[in-house]
Structures are given as C-alpha cells and as structure tokens.
From TrEMBL:
This is Protein YIF1. It comes from Adineta ricciae. The chain crosses the membrane at residues 135-155, 167-188, 200-219, 225-248, 269-291. Has a role in transport between endoplasmic reticulum and Golgi. Residues 1-25 are annotated as: Disordered. GO terms for cellular component: COPII-coated ER to Golgi transport vesicle; endoplasmic reticulum membrane; endoplasmic reticulum-Golgi intermediate compartment; Golgi membrane. The lineage of its organism: Eukaryota, Metazoa, Spiralia, Gnathifera, Rotifera.
Length: 293
C-alpha cells in the first residue's frame, strides 16, 4: 500500500491569483468599440447620458414632438381650441397661490374680498387672483384623499391593492354624478348666471381638502370625537367659503338702484344653498365608511 506523502502540499507550486482578462474573451461588438468594455453599470449609464450623439438625438425628438403637438393643436376645431385653452387657464397656479387658497378654504372667516379680478373682460389667471377657481388643488387633493383613505384602511388591516382603484373610481363617479345633477337642475330651472360649468367643477372639487383634514385628524387620534369635530369645522368653513364665492356668480347683481327681490329669485337662492350645503354631506358620505366605531 502506498503511503500518503505529507509533503506533497508543500512541494506543490502555488499558482498566482491572476484574474482572467475579460477583454481577451469578450466578443467584439459595436458597443464595445464605441464605449469600451463595460465594467460598472453606473459608469456606463453616465457615459451613455453624456454622449453628444445621444443628446443631439434626444433634442431632435423633443423638437419633433413639440412641432407635432403644435400642429395637432392648430388642426383642432376652434371650439375645441377654446376648451383646451380654458382648461389650461385653471392650471395656471404657483406655490404662493396654492398656499393662500388652502388657507382661504380652511380659514375663510376673515376674508373681506370675494369678487374675481378681470382683465379685458376676462378673469385673470389663478396665480394672480386668489379667488379664482383652479383645478390643481381639487386634483391633488383628490389623489391625496385616495392615499390617506388607503392608509386608514391599512391601519385597520382592511387594505388591499384593489382599494386604490376602488377609491379612485368612486371619486370620479361621484364627481360625475354631482356635476351632472347640478347641471340638470340649472337647465330645468332655466337659470342663467356667470357661473360656468368648468367653474362649478372646480368649486365642487374643493371639498377634498376638507376630506383630507377629516381623515388626517382621525388617523392621528383614532378618536370619533376628533373625526366629528373636524367634520363639523370643515363643513362650516367650506360652506362659508362656497356661499361667498358662488353668491356673486349665481345671484343677480344687486349693485344697481333696483333692490334685490328674494321672491323673484327664489330658485337662485335655493340652488346656491343646494350647491353650498351639499359639500359637507359629500364629505361625510365619502369618509364615514372608513371610520371604525
């Protein structure tokens, strides 16, 4: 029997720790010829973004998209152009406007000016006039409401991914129902006012600010008392805000010598009250199912 050689490991030569050169085994490609051998993905991404040919191509694509968008807008009918321009007006906001408008919605009791400012018989953009309606705050507050509602359900271990789509769909459906009913009432009552349909959509969207406050107070305290107190306050503040904004557009002008006749314009008063006091009801309906008693 052959005896094991205890000195074989010591006599075996130690091979140097040489890493194989990947460049020797790599295939030649146009990418390796242009950028070199890839080593670090972050470095390669930096090289890719700093490539002058890529930047020229992206600039050409961007200019082409702007040209196509401009030609498409010019090819639209005049009525559709007016609609697109009108919607663009409601997004002409800045940070100062958003801050002032949120304060005005939640704390409207000290404001003394509610009329809109005009320039050449057209209302000025929201960023110039705090009282002007906008779509930015309703849109962002509606999205925030969906997220906060999901967080509330998560704290109650009732959240599922489908809840995001359910709440987003309910926001859209309830808005369509509300605006549709109010427009139908305007039409049936044959009421002509300064209030436009796009303005009505914006004013009805401000209730989501109150819904965020209500759900946030409950999420922080987990108290029904805090929920109902915040619901009461936001209902009063939003009603006060809307009744001062809408009365100048729904009710007839009383600045003339002829006194305002309540009996003759009773339907306008009722419609103003309907629009105003339906908002706290919607706030309660869209938040009550999230509260655990």
């Amino acid at each position: 029997m052959r005896r094991p050689n205890h000195h074989s490991d010591q006599e075996r030569p130690v091979e140097p720790n040489v890493r194989p050169n990947s460049s020797q085994n790599a295939f030649f490609t146009p990418q390796t010829a242009f950028y070199g051998q890839p080593n670090d993905p972050a470095l390669e991404m930096e090289r890719l973004t700093s490539n002058p040919f890529l930047r020229v191509g992206m600039k050409a694509v961007e200019d082409g998209m702007k040209d196509i968008t401009g030609k498409t807008f010019n090819a639209l009918p005049d009525e559709m152009k007016k609609s697109v321009s009108s919607i663009r007006y409601y997004f002409a906001v800045d940070q100062a406007y958003v801050r002032k408008k949120l304060i005005l919605i939640l704390f409207p009791f000290r404001s003394r000016k509610w009329s809109l400012d005009y320039s050449a018989d057209e209302p000025v953009p929201p960023r110039v006039d705090t009282n002007a309606p906008d779509y930015y705050i309703p849109l962002m507050s509606a999205m925030t409401y969906v997220l906060i509602a999901s967080i509330v359900l998560g704290t109650q271990k009732r959240f599922t991914p489908e809840q995001l789509g359910t709440h987003a769909s309910s926001v859209l459906i309830w808005n369509m129902i509300e605006i549709g009913l109010l427009s139908l009432i305007f039409y049936i009552c044959n009421i002509h006012s300064k209030l436009r349909l796009l303005d009505l959509i914006a004013y009805c969207g401000y209730k989501y600010v109150g819904m965020i406050v209500v759900l946030s107070s409950y999420l922080i305290t987990h108290s029904l008392l805090a929920y109902y107190c915040s619901l009461l306050y936001t209902g009063i503040s939003i009603s006060f805000f809307l009744i001062n904004c809408l009365r100048l557009q729904i009710l007839p002008d009383t600045s003339g010598s002829q006194a305002y006749n309540v009996n003759r314009n009773r339907r306008r008063v009722y419609l103003l009250l309907l629009v105003t006091f339906s908002q706290p009801v919607f706030i309660w309906c869209l938040t009550r199912h999230l509260i655990v008693t």
